[in-house]
Fold this protein.
Amino acid sequence: MIALTHLVVCLLLIELMHLDRNDAFVALVFGVFIDLDHLFGLRDYVQANGVMAVFDMDDIVNPGGHWKSLMHSPIAVMVVGPVSIASRLAVPLLFWGIHVLMDIVQEQVLGVLSTQEFVFLFLAAAGLVTMRYARCIAAGSASTLAEYLRFEVGGIKALSKPRIL
């Protein structure tokens, strides 16, 4: 699936699970940022197919796997599993598994950049916004869209502040 879909689904699950800042970071690393491996495959892809192939959309969205590393295969459980055990967290394994499952569903059922994927993305985003808005109302912070947006911006700003232990 596209990275935006992975991001929205991870954020939705983080919200559902009420993960703290540290666990949310781990969830994003294993649920979204493992897609950065596509950048490492870019050099090999360009060497094999030429620079112009990067601009060929039909070739780019081909699920042949030339953009994916070990982290996108079921064998990566041998890497992610020990990380989960060592950190005593199920979060890495859970979010990596969801990422891989979403990619498999895309390749086997939905198709790359399909209408169904965009519907799924819209529904996940709507669920995330609904949950965040409910949290904002519960905090007594929102009755208008502007107040809700201030609530979200304040939350983003709070992420960048150092925590005092």
About this structure: The longest helix spans residues 115-138. The chain has a mean pLDDT of 80.
